[in-house]
Amino acid sequence: MHRTIQIITLGCSKNSVDTEHILAQIGSVYEIIPEGEDRYADILMLNTCGFIGDAKEESIQAILEAVERKKRGECGQVYVFGCLSQRYAKQMPELIPEVDAWFGARDNDEIVKALGVEPDRRKSTERVLAPASMSYAYLKISEGCDRRCSYCAIPFIRGAHKSVPIELLVKEAESLAAKGIKELIVIAQDTTYYGLDIYHKRALAELLQKLSEVEGIEWLRIHYSYPAGFPEDVFEQMADNPKVCKYLDIPLQHVSDNQLSLMHRNVDGAWTRELIQKLRDRVPGVVLRTTMIVGHPGETEQDFDELMDFVREARFERLGAFTYSEEEGTYGAEHYEDSIPQAVKDDRYNKLMSLQSDISLEFNRSRVGTEEKVIVDAFSDGILVCRSQYESPEVDGEILVKYTPELFREMLPEELVGHFIRVRIVGADEYDLIAEPIDII
Questions:
Q1: Considering just the CA atoms, what is the radius of gyration of the chain in Å?
Q2: Are 250 and 227 in contact (CB under 8 A)?
Q3: Average pLDDT per consecutive 10 residues, the chain (441 residues; last block may be shorter)
Q4: CA neighbor of 378 nearest in space, from 369, 388, 370, 387
Q5: Which residues does 319 contact at the CB level (< 8 Å), separation at least 6?
Q6: Within 10 A of 222 (CB to CB), how many other CB atoms are there?
Q7: How far apart are CA 20 and CA 17, in angstroms?
């Protein structure tokens, strides 16, 4: 009988990819208990997040719950790895000594060895996907970050930027396509920096072209693109390559020169506006997702007003925001005073998100009456949960389609997951769309 193992993954999609790679290394030695399944595990592992306060609290609570499970005899050993244990490598073992082993965010090989398995380079592009991941998967193209944004702890958690060679990413994409994956979401701490360390040039466009040639992959979606030095040959891929979604996640964080300088973003407001205009002009119909930070040290009322005006002008189809929180070890924590009251931060956040709510609703309503190609992600309560190229999973809204067996050639709804269908948009709110099915593509 194989020993059993369960990994609980917290935090971002990049953590999920790490978990999937580890499981591929040990899958022939251990029986893998899917996350969420309530069974005894000989080893219970937690992949943690240590980015911001809420995420750290969630990870600590999960560790404490795992320790309680161990005390009740519901699991054998408890291992912890990922960003939280990397960031607090000295403190965490002292705070929670009941954990059997601690590993950092860059210790995948050490974790595999601790599980009694010798890392196999031939399996470096293989992954064990969660059962729910039937239509899309994340493809992590690099690790770490060379940026030094004032508010961000990622560089000293994840280390320096390190690109994965194109040939390995293509091989990984082929493996994912063989599992039925239709969409790859390209991720990294900074996707536009890809290739500089190993090819001495920005190679994201070349990578997209190579990935688009993988049989079975129909959509490529770009996330986490740093605006400074944005490689303009990516515009051509987005505009001309039918497999590259006209969608871009590009975290801008702010637009005022004062704030961008204090944040160490390496761009100014003029550059930011010009880049957004280029994207609109050179990739007609592109949908942009961005994130903003309000209440960063030094943000004046004038800075915030400029941000609001910019959002009104740019009309980002998707926008998320954070209130600034001081993170120990960052430049901001060491050199700036977090002097803006939380009430002011919250007020600015609410104003920004209220504005964005109206913009997102306007965008969604503009799509009513159009026909779109969508992919089916799931089926629940008679409804097919779908997305078009303009929605990214987990962060954007969904397109909800009523299942009608006659139209879908008697295919069971579960069989439609991972398939593309054509729909007509008939209703919209701020987040989700309602659509009528037309046919299977």
A1: 22
A2: yes
A3: 91 94 95 93 96 90 97 97 94 96 95 96 92 83 95 91 98 96 96 97 98 98 96 97 98 98 97 98 98 98 98 98 94 95 98 98 98 95 96 96 84 89 97 95 88
A4: 387
A5: 289, 290, 291, 292, 311, 352, 353, 356, 359, 360
A6: 24
A7: 5
